[in-house]
Amino acid sequence: MPVLAAEGLAKSYGTRHALVDASIEVNSGEFVAVLGASGSGKTTLFRCLTRLAEPDAGSVTLCGQSFTGLQGRPLADARRQIGVVFQQFNLVRRLSAIDNVLAGRLAGVPLWRVMSRQFDHDDERIAVEALVAVGLADHIDQRADTLSGGQQQRVAIARAIAQNSRIILADEPVASLDPETAEQILALLHGLTRSRGMAVLTTLHQPHLAEKFSDRALHMEAGRFVGNRH
Known about the structure:
Blueprint: E1 4-13, E2 16-26, E3 31-35, H1 42-49, E4 57-62, E5 65-66, H2 72-79, E6 82-85, H3 97-105, H4 111-115, H5 121-133, H6 149-162, E7 167-171, H7 179-195, E8 199-204, H8 207-213, E9 216-221, E10 224-229
Parallel strand pairs: 3-8, 3-9, 6-7, 7-8
Antiparallel strand pairs: 1-2, 1-4, 4-5, 9-10
């Protein structure tokens, strides 16, 4: 059973068709890359898969359950199965690495609670273990805005691990990183599919990186999937 599946997704903005009959499946322990030029529909696909944008047609299934149409608390609960990693990291820059991870673990908790560090010991243990898993054992209490770009992206990945995500959706996670660091981050994501059985779906611009790290590479043009490479 796929962790995440979409069937026939379509999305238009005015007269522009951003997604056209897009279908995809990602399984546990699988690393799937989506390649395509800017404007090909990759980001719209991710927004529809996470319900940050509502598709005009089609359906999304998450862990065997319908994700389409959920609202309120059921939607928030389901979203915890999806860890999202962005190009620009989306960390709270003035918080430490561990507090950023804890903020992701306790989705919906007010920022004042994060700032005052009102977490239980189990949450803190899980956050520390996640940071150790991404190689940041020596930077647990360091402010996010003093970390390098690669280290900040590792914090974002640790946040996804700590919230017990079944799948990580990484939207251009290495676009702002130097080539060496980009390979390190993709190697880390690939390692999670093997060590933890997580699914990873990522968008990339670089075919050589998809070739090196992904189990499958899908190609988008004008909102459509046009082929795949194994």
